[in-house]
# Entry
Amino acid sequence: MFKFLHAADLHLDSPLKGLERYDGAPVDEIRGATRRALQNLVAVAIEQQVQFVLIAGDVYDGDWKDHNTGLFFVSQMSRLRAADIPVVVISGNHDAANKMTKSLPLPDNVEWLSHTKAVSSKSKILADLGVAVHGRSFAKAAEMENLARLYPERKKELFNIGLLHTSLNGAAGHEPYAPCEVAELQQKEYDYWALGHVHTRQVKLEHPWIVYPGNIQGRQIRETGAKGCYLVTVDDHGTTSLEFQPLDVFRWEVCRVDVAGLTTGDDLLEQVSSGLSRLLTAHPDLPLAVRIQIVGESTLHDRLLAEPVNWTNDLRAAALDDSNGRIWLEKVEFRTTPPQSSDRAARDDGPIGELLQFFHELQEDDTALQELNSELDDLRRKLPEELLTGDQGLAFSSPEQRRALIEEIRPFLLNRLLKGNDR
# Structure
């Protein structure tokens, strides 16, 4: 029997893109998270007394700003060397040979497989365990060749592992690097395929095992949930079992709150508090970055979209209070809709009703939306770059983005106009 860890996508010292723009963001805590996750990986390897560790690409997030990133990796590999644990690594698109200009000598327990063809002589043979690890690093970041075809035939009488950084035949949100089909991997007749590149853990197949462990630490809101690696156990009969090992020290989550039927702001705050409490229970002892999505058909719709900043600040304060500082709200998205029968202004025959009818017609007319976009070009040219890019930028190039903008503006104008009428 033997055990090994299968990890991928460490992205050590990955830069925080735009996070500093968020008021109150725990920048320092997130910035050091990838390092602490790697420390946890090493601790698990030692505690579980694994026979070896596999890392399927993207150890680094590109060339280092300085040597400290590389020195930290060397220090962690030295901890494994002291425990007599070998490590086999390949490069992925982020740390491909043509992206890395700096390098450091690695401890002799680390075998970083070459970016040349993975012929038999380049495979790592762990003779005492009866294991062969076949792999190939990326020579360049945009690797579009089917690397799996270059992997050698299985070594008879050995447990064969394919170490590969790939999108397979495509993965949403990931570049289609080193594409290949599951059937091609099956044809190699390996016992286990240790994949990297896709940041969501998933078992693509069990016969043979074709596995993505995901990245070891979430770095943005699209990387939610527990992150870590797989502990793989192979018994004396060759039967393989997997156990997920969480390694992350900071977790991202989405809290979806349905406000249908709610009528007061206190009701909304209570509903959000309940949702956040469930997340705290599900993720004990870890700080969380949470995006709240307010959804549902509600009479609160116009109030929420008319004053989104005020509501967001109220929710941030409530989250900090309810969680004793463990939750930071990354963003609040208001995705509610107004009740179909309660829009007083929509029935108004006066100017407010005409304005709302104009909004409705504009949202239904792609040509009119495109004309509106053209009219706003002059305004966009005068705006600073930070307002036009990123998650909340005003680069509304598609009809869907323009419709969303109109839906945000409509309740704001309605709220201002109705207040004026009520005075």
About this structure: The longest strand covers residues 327-337. The radius of gyration is 26 Å. The mean pLDDT is 86. The longest helix spans residues 399-422.
